[in-house]
Amino acid sequence: MAPKGFLALVLHAHLPFVRHPEHERFLEETWLFEAITETYLPLLRVMDGWNRDGVRWRLTMSLTPTLCSMLDDELLRERYVQHIGRLQLLAEQEVERTRPLPEFHSSALMYQRAFRDCRQDFVERHKRDLTGAFRRHMEAGNLEIITCGATHGFLPLMQNHPEAVRAQVALGVAQYRKTFRRDPAGIWNAECGFFPGLDAILQREGVRYFFVDSHGLLFGTKRPRYGVFAPLRTPSGPYAFGRDQESSRAVWSAKLGYPGDPRYREFYRDIGFDLDLNYLRPTMGDGETRTATGIKYHRISADHKELHDKEPYVEKEAREAAGQHAGHFLFSRQQQILHLDSLMGGKPPIIVSPYDAELFGHWWYEGPDFLDQLVRKIHFDQQDIALITPGEYLAAHPDAQESMPSMSSWGYGGYSEVWLEGSNDWIYRHLEKATERMIALAREHESPDPLTRRALNQCARELLLAQASDWAFIMKTNTVVDYARRRTETHLGQFLKLWEMIQARRIDEAALAVIESRDNIFDDLDYRIYAPASDAGRKESGRLPAPQPVG
């Protein structure tokens, strides 16, 4: 029996490039380690379980170039092994400490198992190669991995310089080819940011589809005949899929959605802030600063009590909640699909439900279990809905209404307010000037000597790293603002230093080598990716080598 409609689950896996070899341990590197422990390894474990049990599944994930670069970095891989080892030691201590505290002891045992499994999976099962682990699921036909702009730059705020937009997109596509040995079918534009004209750049780089928030489709040049439940074809060719608000809200919203259930684990109460610092010091990021350990003994609790009043976490009750919510999510999507099927005149509806991947496991501890049970219920318990990837949907249903989506994002307010407001607007005059200078450098230096070429390539890296939307986002949300400001200022400062060396024709090789060793992302980058498209010398400049055929 053919399904009446489709569900596309899309997980956006991204972290900014954080790598500090100049320090033995660096606090912000734990962002990656937490994501590996709480999101990426649990998701791989769930996928392996589906395969083991014969479950038909389809999932779409973006693995951004910065994330892949860190996952493939030997220094960071080794530091993760050290990190999970410290957590194993802490969990063993916690098992002993909580023996007289039965309300916490079962959770301590849970963390002991979890950290042991993570180390075993990372070192033995996946041989420290998580991009390879995800790639194997893609090659089996179950996982559709898509790319993103090189450093997750917010493209609508770069549109004054098409060369900068093209560099983000082209380098993201090239890095994908290098990592996954094939062309990407789709792209996750950072923050779902879109502006009219971006479709032409995507088409030029061979991208077939992208995503926008619902209003991006609804406020396009033509009213979409099927709302957000079918893709639109842009004038240049790539297809735009729109986010479904109803299914997104059920999972995203901490107050109205599933993650706010009182049975789930409380994210903000962690023993890193509760216990004596001397007890915790061996496992802290720098040995002195209090930070989250990932060991959390409390649940959200009824009425969302204050942190000091939270009730003990009960794993069994939380897992039951995940199953109930998976059932509710499926029932709601079935009703949605049945209603849409009655309205769309034979056009099969597709519900696109995109989320940050780190929501599943890191922010919402039970998220991977919710996803596991949802996919199993879709496979075993009904026939109305089938899981699908956007690429599969387009292969089966290529006909689409033509329209140009409107400028939009999925951030607060739906446009650029998150990334351009009072806390972060100061960065853009500097980014604009650096971009102008980078374009000029690419135009003026056609055949530089090897040392100058290295400096030019590093200029491009520093600009790309400064453009990451993460820094403006952090400034807006007022979290680790000092670090975000420092990263922005450091990359722009290093760009300026290198630019001055190039202009003066006196390049300090030792100083350049220090910058290269720290910001070593995109080792095959060619600075000519910033040459204007009309320059005859561009051709394939900036692109990484073409991939070899898989198999």
Q: Please state the average pLDDT score.
A: 94
Helix content: 40-55%
Q: Determine the CATH topology of the domain at 427-530.
A: immunoglobulin/albumin-binding domain-like
Name of the CATH superfamily of the domain at 427-530: Families 57/38 glycoside transferase, middle domain
Rg over alpha carbons: 24 Å
Q: Look at the helices and sheets and give the structural class.
A: alpha/beta
List keywords for this structure.
six-stranded parallel sheet, immunoglobulin/albumin-binding domain-like, 551 residues, alpha/beta, 19 helices, globular, 47% helix, three-stranded mixed sheet, disordered C terminus
How do the strands and helices of this protein lay out in sequence?
Elements: E1 5-13, H1 30-52, E2 59-63, H2 65-71, H3 74-97, H4 102-125, H5 130-139, E3 143-148, H6 162-180, E4 187-188, H7 198-204, E5 209-212, H8 214-218, E6 232-233, E7 239-242, H9 245-252, H10 271-274, H11 277-280, H12 315-341, E8 350-356, H13 367-380, E9 385-387, H14 390-396, H15 427-444, H16 450-466, H17 469-477, H18 481-504, H19 509-518
Parallel strand pairs: 1-2, 1-8, 1-9, 2-3, 3-4, 5-7
Antiparallel strand pairs: 6-7
Helix pairs in contact: 1-4, 1-5, 1-13, 3-4, 12-13, 15-16, 15-18, 16-18, 16-19, 17-18
